[in-house]
Amino acid sequence: MRRTIVRRTAVVASGLSLALLVSACGSDKPAADSAAPKDKGSAAAEPAAKALSQAELDKLVLAQSDLKNHKVAGATKADLAAVKTMTTDKAECKPLVQAMSLSAVGTPAATSTRKIVAVPKAPARDASADEKAAAGMKALSATVTADTLGSYDGKGAPDAFASLSAAGKACAGGFTLVVGSDKTKFTKVAPATYSGGDEAVAFVLTADLDGESGTSHLVAVRKGSTLASFYAQSLGGKAEQPKDVIDTQLAKLG
């Protein structure tokens, strides 16, 4: 694995630190989950849809006890500070960047986030040196997922879902993600599959990581007034769609 590939992938992660997740103690309290100003226009358009409170949403986001073989941690202040620097060269791709960066799409009334890393099975005590080395590489290549819940008033959730779905199509030819002084070119946004909730959309994103290709997955599922988004990537450059994480989160949403 080239050092530059690891660095580039870490930049795109925008604070989704594998080391932090592996060493996390399973704390369920995020550092900066917060209520955002409500979209009064959306609330007036459809008053029947009421956003969950911050406390209610925090109870529904995944906790360490919900997932086996994964490490769950809340977003830190440093994570969210990095998120604020994330931009894109194409305005139409903004919903994609929001969903990728521990930030809910649009203007939710409340947001709750988690960082989740798949923990591979440890090698046997009598494993050979090669087997232990392979297990170590597998751990470094584990899929890291940003799980973000946004709760909205009125038509906020359907509108946010629609904007993300439209962004995936509009940005099919790629876009550039800017994090501070670093730039990462995504060359392709292709449709993928996931079924669940009231409506769901999924994409596979291909990035140019210093001349090598890397893939990440973005899935968004709406359930009522809540939009759950999941962005998965790997320091190895090739992530898998985190179906277990998504299924477990949706089950907890009810």
Describe this structure in words.
This protein is of the alpha+beta class. It has a single domain, classed as PknH-like extracellular domain (Protein Transport Mog1p, Chain A), CATH 3.40.1000. It is built from nine helices and ten strands. Strands 1, 2, 3, 4, 5, 6, 7, 8, 9 and 10 form a ten-stranded antiparallel β-sheet that branches. A hairpin with a 6-residue loop joins strand 7 (182-192) and strand 8. Helix 6 crosses helix 8 (156-170). The chain is globular, with a radius of gyration of 18 Å. The chain starts with a helix and ends with a helix. Mean pLDDT is 83; it is low at 1-30 and 36-46.
Top keywords for this entry?
254 residues, alpha+beta, Protein Transport Mog1p, Chain A, ten-stranded antiparallel beta sheet, 10 strands, globular
Task: Quickly describe the structure.
By secondary structure, the protein is an alpha+beta fold. It contains 9 helices and 10 strands.
**Record field, number of beta strands:** 10
Q: Runs with pLDDT <50, length 5+?
A: 1-30, 36-46
The rounded Rg comes to: 18 Å
Quote the CATH topology: Protein Transport Mog1p, Chain A
CA-to-CA gap between the ends? Answer: 41 Å
Overall outline? globular
Q: Give the H and E element order.
A: HHEHHEHEHEHEHEEEEEH
The helix fraction, in percent, is 25-40%
